[in-house]
Each structure stands twice: as structure tokens, then as C-alpha cells.
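pls design
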């Protein structure tokens, strides 16, 4: 749970930048790649991440202009995600550290607003992990977010990682 607006803003910036790196690796063709079974494909997971970026904070009472819609091109996704992230980054200034301790109804439960923001961040990380697997399956390069990716590791002339 976040107990500081400043801490949220730092983490939000970092994690949102990481998600944006993934979106920028897409091609419009990759959005048509099917998944396996009835699971979400790249396009569906990306749209879900975009919707939740400001959707979860909206549900927690953050004053953002949330509207859920489906995006069909990489540029639409980048623009929509950037807009959602920026809205949250701006709107959070209307809250203070005490606001994060307030309780709010969330998905049939009662959460503190600081917890809702935490869920927003970790939810994004969770789906970004799923997304990177599908990106590899589709032949896309995956950004090295928390460390070098396979291509970056190889470029360092290091022995193969375990």
C-alpha cells in the first residue's frame, strides 16, 4: 500500500515508462497475433492494461476522465496509455497522504485508497509479464526492464544466462 503521494508518483512514473517501452515494441501486425486457447492475446492484454491504468484509480475516487474503449493500432494504444498515465499523474495532486488512508468501496470489498493505487501498479506489472511472454511468442523484441533482455545480454558478450 502506498502511504505517500510522492512515493506513488515515483513508482508510477517508473512502472508506466516500463509498460510504455513494451507498447512501443509492438507492430500493428503483432496486435493480430492469436494466443493459445481462450486466453488474452497481445491486443487484448494491452487494451486491458490501458483501461486499468486510470480505471482502477477512477473506481477509487481519483478525479480522472475515465472511458473504456478498445484500441486497434499501436499508435492509438501508445496515445491512450500515455493520456491515462498523465491523467493519473496530474489528478493525484488533488489527494494528499491522508487521502491514501481513506477507505473506498472497490470490487465488492473495502480498500484504502493507497492500496487501490498499489493494486493499480502491481496489476500493470502482472499483465506486463504476461504480455512479454506473448511478445516473444510473436517474434517481438522484449525490452530489458529490470535487467538486460536476451539480446542485450548477448551484446555484452557475457556467457549465456541460467
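designed seq:
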Amino acid at each position: 500500500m502506498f502511504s505517500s503521494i510522492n512515493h506513488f508518483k515515483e513508482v508510477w512514473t517508473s512502472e508506466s515508462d516500463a509498460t510504455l517501452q513494451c507498447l512501443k515494441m509492438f507492430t500493428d501486425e503483432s496486435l493480430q497475433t492469436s494466443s493459445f486457447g481462450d486466453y488474452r492475446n497481445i491486443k487484448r492484454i494491452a487494451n486491458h492494461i490501458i483501461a486499468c491504468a486510470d480505471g482502477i484509480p477512477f473506481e477509487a475516487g481519483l478525479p480522472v476522465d475515465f472511458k473504456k474503449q478498445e484500441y486497434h493500432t499501436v499508435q492509438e494504444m501508445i496515445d491512450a496509455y500515455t493520456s491515462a498515465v498523465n491523467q493519473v499523474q496530474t489528478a493525484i495532486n488533488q489527494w494528499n497522504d491522508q487521502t491514501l488512508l481513506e477507505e473506498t468501496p472497490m470490487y465488492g470489498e473495502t480498500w484504502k485508497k493507497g492500496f487501490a493505487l498499489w493494486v493499480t501498479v502491481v496489476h500493470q506489472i502482472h499483465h506486463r509479464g504476461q504480455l512479454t511472454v506473448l511478445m516473444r511468442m510473436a517474434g517481438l523484441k522484449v525490452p530489458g526492464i529490470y535487467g538486460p533482455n536476451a539480446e542485450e545480454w548477448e551484446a555484452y558478450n557475457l556467457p549465456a544466462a541460467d
